[in-house]
Write a structure and sequence with these properties.
Elements (H helix, E strand, L loop, with lengths): L13 H15 L4 E4 L6 H9 L4 E4 L3 H15 L3 E5 L3 H4 L2 H10 L3 E7 L25 E4 L7 H19 L6 E6 L22 H5 L9 E4 L7 H11 L5 E5 L8 H11 L3 E3 L15 E2 L2 H4 L3 H6 L4 E5 L6 H9 L5 E5 L13 E4 L2 H15 L7 H23 L8 H9 L4 E5 L3 H9 L7 E5 L9 H12 L5 E6 H6 L5 H5 L4 E7 L15 H9 L7 H6 L3 E4 L3 H14 L2 E7 L2 H27 L1
Parallel strand pairs: 1-2, 1-3, 3-4, 4-6, 5-6, 7-13, 8-9, 8-11, 9-10, 11-12, 12-13, 14-15, 14-16, 16-17, 17-19, 18-19
Length: 613
């Protein structure tokens, strides 16, 4: 029985009351089949469909295939079939089948999950403009209201369900698109009532605006990318009063940015949290202030509480690391200045006090020149710098010792090994979900010139193999390219391997195969085992050897790290298409990650006690 139809409990989860009413009404309207693709943002609808008696769920990993599967079923049944996917490019992959459905009058009900409005058009991950995504190829589009558990909202969503399913069948039949924005939490734990906070507990800037009637966030657009004199004067005045500053650098593909940011950090005495895709972790520039292990040590509450910044300068998009986001939220009162060379809005945190649209390298150079002309010595705190540097050093040493003691193949060690293995002028392409997160945590700084790339615009798992092959083609025959990718992402773009044979390209692929969506084992969805494997784990049980050989590639499965090192080195040297499979197990991988956070916490606490002694 649907949760919406059971006796109401207090507290309730309004999102699940809402989606249960929707799914229940779809069944009433004659929709009995739903094709579901795994994803996080679509969790409420996926669980509601799975729990609805009488609704048949069909799981598909690939959205393009899923949509065509639903098309064939709807044709055969002459009844509407629902399609469900998560946000981002997952939704875009439905388009070819919807074009066919519109032109051949097939009743499909397309349900796309989406970020809520506050996380749109501001650099939030896996977020694209999904409004009217399919243009004229759907009969009707609705941006569904955010979930509520009021009587009016439940009447509304039931009406939408009935209206949409009926319209798919109205002559001429065809697809209808409903876009569902969901806020977290995405899992069905009860959400207690949240009364208005007392004034003392409010974020007054959020409630009443910033002091002195200033805007909540000021936006400065620099002409032709050059920082204005006003911006530079403001920054000079600001940094002269700051002793505990921090620089955060997100994904960036401009190699000229490393040197000016490093020189600015040295002048200011600010540690740098450098995302693995920032191009700062690799190269010949001074790396003394670069921190690469922050994703681990910012998980430790005692450390986070001990390092309260007075100013944060963030360059470019938000880093991959969620602990960085949580750190900024913990110290939300600290001024956050975002310097971004694009005219968009790369600020999903809603914490920034100022956003400066200017070329980051030019701003660093201009600020350095202005500070040198000003002549006064800045109030650098060596204790502040040392606190961060020691945390990074202790964390890296602790993690390296621990991962070398693991008996099983550990996914994070792939990047620890690659940081020591990859030669100059290598391109490292990294898939989304777990690989890019492990890259951020375990790929330490190196003096080799390595360009690290990934598809972090919409953060989708689709097309990564083809993207890496395109990067290989652009790099040329003499510069090696290596791709690290998960098994679902690899499966999603298997056909992309054909380009390696057609164009004689060199690509070494490290395939991390945990037979499913490994990242979901780290997310709240893992706490709901009844439908976890079906909806989120999505194991395929595929043996990729024959597929690789079909495309003319060489395939090897590694048993230990010595073999891994030999195969990677051989692949980079030999060229052609080389696939090295590292087979892991999802539950063990989660366990090993959590063991690492525990030993890091212990090491940092011991180090802090030793410092006090």
């Amino acid at each position: 029985m649907s949760r919406a139809s059971t006796e109401q409990q207090d507290p309730i989860n309004p999102t699940y009351a809402y989606v249960d009413a929707f799914v229940n009404e779809l069944l009433r309207a004659g929709v009995q089949n739903v094709v579901i693709c795994p994803g996080s943002r679509s969790t409420p609808l996926a669980l509601a469909f799975a729990a609805q008696a009488g609704m048949r769920t069909w799981m598909h990993v690939d959205e393009r295939s899923a949509a065509y599967f639903g098309l064939g079923m709807a044709k055969q049944l002459r009844q509407p079939v629902a399609l469900l996917c998560t946000s981002g490019t997952a939704a875009a992959n439905f388009l070819p089948a919807l074009v066919e459905a519109r032109l051949t009058h097939v009743p499909l009900l397309v349900l796309t999950a989406d970020r809520p409005h506050e996380l749109r058009d501001n650099g939030a991950p896996q977020s694209i403009d999904q409004n009217r995504l399919y243009g004229t190829y759907v009969k009707w589009f609705v941006e569904v209201a955010l979930p509520e558990a009021t009587n009016a909202a439940l009447r509304y969503i039931r009406t939408i369900a009935a209206r949409a399913s009926a319209l798919t069948q109205a002559v001429p039949a065809g697809p209808v698109h409903l876009n569902f924005p969901f806020r977290e939490p995405l899992t069905p734990e009860p959400v207690p009532d949240q009364p208005l906070l007392p004034v003392a507990q409010r974020d007054l800037a959020a409630w009443q605006g910033r002091p002195d009637n200033a805007s909540y966030v000021e936006v400065h657009n620099a002409p032709a990318g050059a920082p204005t004199a006003t911006n530079l004067a403001y920054l000079v005045d600001l940094v002269q009063r700051i002793r505990r500053g921090l620089i955060i650098v997100g994904p960036n593909d401009d190699p000229s940015l490393a040197e000016p940011i490093v020189r600015l950090a040295q002048h200011l005495g600010y540690p740098i949290l450098a995302d693995a895709l920032s191009q700062l972790r690799c190269g010949v520039h001074d790396q003394a202030l670069l921190l690469s292990s922050y994703d681990a040590f910012l998980r430790i509450d005692s450390f986070v509480e001990s390092v309260q910044p007075e100013l944060v300068l963030r360059f470019g998009a938000m880093p991959t690391s969620k602990p960085v986001l949580l750190y900024l939220k913990r110290h939300a009162a600290c001024p956050l200045l975002v310097i971004d060379g694009h005219a968009g809005w790369e600020e999903p945190t809603q914490l920034a006090s100022k956003l400066i649209h200017a070329d980051p390298a030019a701003l660093c150079q201009g600020l350095l020149k202005a500070l040198e002309q000003h002549g006064e010595e800045l109030p650098v705190s060596q204790a502040w710098v040392s606190r961060w540097q020691e945390a990074d050093r202790v964390t890296r040493q602790t993690m390296e010792t621990a991962i070398h003691n693991f008996d099983e193949l550990f996914e994070g060690r792939v990047f620890n090994e690659l940081a020591d293995l990859l030669p100059n002028d290598t391109t490292l392409y990294v898939g989304n979900s777990m690989p890019v997160r492990d890259l951020d945590t375990f790929f330490h700084c190196t003096g080799e010139r390595i360009r690290i790339m990934g598809n972090r615009g919409a953060n989708g798992i689709d097309g990564v193999v083809s993207s890496a092959l395109g990067a290989s083609a652009g790099a040329g025959q003499n510069k090696p390219t290596i791709l690290v990718v998960g098994d679902l992402s690899f499966f999603h773009d298997l056909n992309g391997l054909l380009a390696a044979r057609l164009h004689n390209l060199n690509l070494t692929i490290v395939l991390i195969n945990n037979d499913g969506g490994g990242i979901f084992s780290f997310l709240p969805q893992a706490a709901y085992p009844e439908h976890f494997e079906q909806l989120f784990g999505t194991p395929t049980g595929l043996d990729f050897r024959l597929a690789v050989e079909m495309y003319g590639g060489q395939y090897q499965k590694v048993e230990n790290w010595e073999q891994f090192r030999k195969l990677v080195s051989r692949g980079l040297h030999t060229g052609g298409l080389q696939v090295i499979e590292v087979q892991t197990e999802r539950a063990s991988n989660v366990k090993m990650h959590r063991q690492l956070w525990e030993v890091v916490g212990t090491a940092l606490n011991e180090q802090a006690m030793g410092t006090r002694d």
